[in-house]
Amino acid sequence: MWWLISYLNSSNLVATFQQACGLYPAPETTETGQVREHEPSNLTASKVHHRKGDLVANGRSLSQDDNSNYNHTADDCKINHASTQYEVVMYIGQVMKDILKLPRPTVPPVVKLEQRVHAEYGMPSTHAMGAIAISFTLLFSAQERVQFTFEVGLVLAVVLSGLVCLSRLYTGMHSALDVICGILISALILGIIYPHWSILDSLQLNSPLSPAVALALPLYLCYKYPELDHYSTTRGDTTIIMAVSAGCSVGYWVNHQLGQTFEPTGPFPVTLPPMNAVTFALGVTRFGVGLAILVLTRQTAKWVSLRLLCRCYGVAHSDIVARQRKEIEVPYKFSTYLVIGLVNSMAVCRVFSLVRLL
Predict the structure, then answer these.
(1) 36 in the same domain as 167
(2) How many domains does the chain divide into?
(3) Residue 168, SS3?
């Protein structure tokens, strides 16, 4: 068993997978410009574009969504299953990283394509956890709302989450063991929460305490995030995820109290409309309008919150080191992305209704 764990955690296994996808280290050169033989390179990658590598690279693009916000037009609470599940698994995964403190694959032999998270630890892969949580939560929650062939949905969930998981090996950011543990942990959490979805729905939408809990608990958990002896992006990323989910949760509660949940009309499960030019154009337009609203919201909320906090603590808002302090980073990111969650769940659909995009 220990041999298997060591093998799955091996950097050589990641490097072998990268090379199978056509990704090799760029050769080092001497001062005269000659290529050095038998010396693996640094972080620079030399790509040979094979079909397999292109496919996994597409999964890499799917995995760059830690801070993504999903616009929706109907059925607030069911879509919030994915948001809540994502919030839970990501917090658990990020905290586990900073408690276990297991390193990422080493360079060489691995080629790392991402540098932003070089200070983060590796175990487990939160991208794998998030991909499993979102894909399968949407799959299971959609069954009673939308008519579709479950087998087709299952294949899509497996393929999409699988591409994200493989992309973590392709980018050299995680070992196979990191990814497998991420999948298993997320599946375990989903299995524990899934039987209680109906109860959680009722409490979230009807309890007068729901907004207070949705705001106070995530903020408390962000302040209690494990401290490290160096700065890492995990606390900030976790705060963003928790804040967006909190904002969406409060927004869904408000929508429900106002009787405006933007649910589709007719008996459930509803039939999906046929994909044609008009449907596609509406979808693209909704995406563009929603994205523009959220980007404007983010820039405005970030500008205001960051300047207010920096003024309170007597530091310049352009001071990167000061912005990494917990007393500034947590409230500024939480308030910014809380507003984004509120706007996403309350305002965006109303704008769609006003301009007749629903």
Answers:
(1) yes
(2) 2
(3) helix
Render pLDDT for 300-352 as a digit per residue (tens, 0 to 9): 999 999 999 989 988 888 888 888 888 888 999 999 999 999 998 888 888 88
Q: Which of 268, 288, 284 is nearest to 276 (CA)?
A: 284
Of 58-67, 112-121, 131-140, 152-161, the poorest mean pLDDT is in: 58-67
Largest CA distance in the chain: 74
Q: Would 133 be classed as within a structural domain? A: yes
Pair 84, 231 in one domain:
no
Of 50, 174, 196, 230, catalytic: 174
Q: Is 174 a catalytic residue?
A: yes
Q: Tell me, what CATH number does 56's domain have?
A: 1.20.144
Cβ(120)–Cβ(231) below 8 Å: no
Q: How far is CA 255 from the centre of its chain?
A: 24
Distance CA 105, CA 13 (A): 10
Of 142, 168, 196, which residue sits at a domain end? 196
Please name every residue paired with 25 in a beta bridge, in sequence order, or none if there are none: 45
Domain that holds residue 327: 207-260+274-358
Question: Which is catalytic among the residues 49, 50, 81, 127?
Answer: 127
Q: What is the value of pTM for the model shown?
A: 0.78
270-271 and 146-147 beta bridge pairing: parallel
Residue 5, domain member (yes or no): yes
* 26 domain-assigned: yes
DSSP notation for 240-264: HHHHHHHHHHHHHHHHHHHT---PP
Give the separation between CA 161 and CA 310, rounded to whole angstroms: 40
Q: Distance (Å, rounded) from C-alpha 38 to C-alpha 17?
A: 19
127 catalytic, yes or no? yes
Q: Which residues pair with 146 in a beta bridge?
A: 270
Q: Is the dihedral of CA 76, 82, 357, 240 positive or negative?
A: positive
**332 within 8 A of 239, measured Cβ to Cβ:** no
